[in-house]
Specification:
- The structure is a single chain.
- This protein is an alpha+beta fold.
- The chain has one domain: Electron Transport, Fmn-binding Protein, Chain A (Pnp Oxidase, Chain A), CATH 2.30.110.
- The chain is 27% helix and 36% strand.
- The chain is built from five helices and eight strands, in the order E-H-E-E-E-E-E-E-H-H-E-H-H.
- Strands 1, 2, 3, 4, 5, 6, 7 and 8 form an eight-stranded antiparallel beta sheet that branches.
- The chain starts with 8 loop residues before the first strand and ends with a helix.
Length: 193
């Protein structure tokens, strides 16, 4: 049996990028011969080059995996569904959206490039009406802070999604799920359109 089932597999870049941008806290799986480290780090995405950018504290174990291929998971919305809530469901189930990626972790050592990465991250996450600016930090302090961080990029070599959205149910049952989620989980509901 192949899993995920083919009806759950999502390969469309636009759908995958949407999940990454809406749920940017990535779970990294970094493997060595004797151990797997799991790290949670927010990243920003450059769609054109399929590149993730981020930074982590110098004490984060991810620093030991620079130059290696890492696995990354983005967990989108999810929901429990009960047959008591949706007619035609049959059994309870859990629907969810995840994206899995893989790429080589590369460190960014150049200070100007680090500032570019910070700018990219700020543009992705700061409030557009009143964004915080890097210029709020004195240059000397900013340089010191950058030295204590690991700045990185990951060019995604593989990217796929597992969008389990009750695709094996009838159109009527899926419409019932969408109606339920309109009130209980609007973010999840948007994936049933």
């Amino acid at each position: 049996m192949k899993y995920p089932f083919k009806e759950y597999v999502q390969q469309q870049d636009s759908a995958l990028f949407d999940v990454i941008e809406r749920f940017p806290l990535a779970t990294f799986f970094c493997k060595s011969e004797d151990q797997t480290h799991i790290c949670h780090i927010p990243v920003s995405l450059c769609k054109g080059s399929k590149t993730l950018f981020g930074h982590a504290t110098g004490s984060n174990p991810i620093k030991h995996f620079v130059g290696t291929t890492v696995d990354i998971v983005f967990r989108g919305p999810d929901t429990y569904l009960s047959p008591n809530q949706v007619e035609g469901l049959g059994l309870p189930t859990w629907d969810y959206v995840t994206v899995q990626g893989q790429g080589k972790l590369a460190s960014i050592e150049d200070y100007d490039k680090q500032l570019e990465v910070m700018g990219h991250i700020l543009q992705a996450f700061e409030d557009k009406r009143n964004p915080w600016q890097l210029t709020a930090v004195p240059e000397k302090r900013l340089k010191s802070m950058c030295k204590s961080l690991l700045f990185f990029e990951i060019k995604l070599e593989a990217l796929s999604g597992n969008f389990k959205l009750s695709q094996n149910k009838t159109a009527e049952t899926r419409a019932g799920i969408a109606d339920l989620l309109s009130n209980t989980n609007p973010e999840m509901r948007s994936y049933y359109e």
